[in-house]
Amino acid sequence: MDTKFLIGKFVGELQTSQIFITRECLTFGTRAAVDSVLWNMVSRGLIIRLANGVFVRNDIGMKMPSLAEIIKAKARAHVRRAISHGADLALRFKLAPKPRRRVKNQKDKSTRDKGAVVACCAVIGDTTRFNTIYGRVEFRRTPARKFCLGEGKSSQVLAAWWASSCETKLERMINEHLSRLGKIEKKRFKEVGAWAPAWISDLLLDDPPRFSTQAPKTIHPRWSVESSGDPDFDPRVNEPAANYRVDFVA
Questions:
Q1: Do 57 and 13 touch, CB atoms closer than 8 A?
Q2: Same domain for 130 and 60?
Q3: Nearest to 144 by CA among 119, 170, 117, 125
Q4: Judging by beta carbons within 10 Å of its beta carbon (0-12, 13-18, 19+), is residue 87 exposed, middle or buried?
Q5: I need a labelling partner for 202 at 20 to 30 A (CA). Which of 17, 27, 216, 220 fits?
């Protein structure tokens, strides 16, 4: 069976408005052959290119996938997980985000990237931009610690504080947030807060500090004992035993 037939059969069996990516078709032929078939299908109107490497079958009366669904598929194509960026979290909590820091050659790069960014997501990896049918999207490089705080539902406010310029009123905001939590939730929030920057975690300390309030060993979901169902997975580095030779001098 040729590549054109296999891809056509694959696309035909998809559900309405179901997104697929180029990589799902690479078992049907070479990359060049798959790209050629998909390009011809887009030209004939059989499928719609939502973004580079992201497609949907062009059915009559179909509901177009949302921007969030396209971003999720694009992140899946690059083995990434995209979440709300800290600046967006700050705006969600009605805070003013910090201005983005300029790095070397960033101004020249921004002039080459045409089109306004309609959505910005945090990813662990390099910063990239791509076009969609809704506009330009940016995957912005984010430190792993900030990413994991923004991924947790209860710790998103920590990531929002981290990304905002609220240092002057942070203590009042922390007290207001803690007042809305129960006893157990307050304790857990303070424990996770140990992974926030010092200018946040210092304000979350008990007065006086208590031994019962202990920071979790990690906030990475893959390294969490509770969320990891793999008993063979161990995030620790296992080094082989080293043999040392000692020469005694009389």
A1: no
A2: no
A3: 125
A4: buried
A5: 220
Q: What is the CA radius of gyration of the chain?
A: 24
Which residue bears the tokens 């054109």?
4
Distance CA 65, CA 83 (A): 18
> Low-confidence residues of the chain, pLDDT below 70?
1, 101-115, 221-250
Domain that holds residue 115: 83-221
What integer pLDDT is reported at residue 106 of this predicted model? 55
Q: What is the pLDDT of residue 241?
A: 53
Q: Are 203 and 170 in contact (CB under 8 A)?
A: yes
Does residue 59 sit in the same domain as residue 173? no
d(CA 165, CA 70): 31
